[in-house]
Amino acid sequence: MDSESVGGSQPSNEQKPPQTADSKADRWYQWVGGTIIADIQEDVSPDPIPLFAEDELAVQLTEDGTLKRSAAIDEQIRRAGLHCVDSAGVREDGCEGLLYMMYQLDAPVEDVNPADVIPLYIGKAEAYGKQRELSSNFVEIAKNRNATQTFGRWGDGNYWHIGGLSMAYRGEDGRSELERRKLSPRVVIWWVLMED
Description:
Blueprint: H1 3-6, H2 24-41, E1 49-50, E2 54-55, E3 58-59, H3 71-81, E4 85-86, E5 89-90, E6 97-105, E7 117-126, H4 136-142, H5 161-170, E8 187-194
């Protein structure tokens, strides 16, 4: 008991304001600022990595009319994937997988703040598959081959991300009729290693 309540004084009816926790939006902006923006504004990072091969924001197409992924995506997949696997499989000293986010920036890289990062898709790729064996996402990387087109479902088949976007672009999925393929703004990818 404190000394004020012993003397017969009445407890105060004034209530302390409730402790306000950060809102979900505040937490999101803190995370974006400390991870994505920190990555894209440092000189040693290849971020932001364009998702599509493009010429002044006009997306290039493959010979069969599919939207063309950038070579930088494949390079980053291999580079990040080697933190998880090597030729023997999943590395004992490696990460458990990769977390990635497709997003757009609403400001130039040098001026971007957390509110300018517009998330479009967040995904993960785990080093171990369902059978606790090397995930199919990482087999090509472990064998030091260049085939990363299907990593994280980013392939160009109809049931893969690029394929689905290509179908929408060509009007084959019945969802939209697009007359142009110019990005506004650019779509980019961010990667981080998943650790314990």
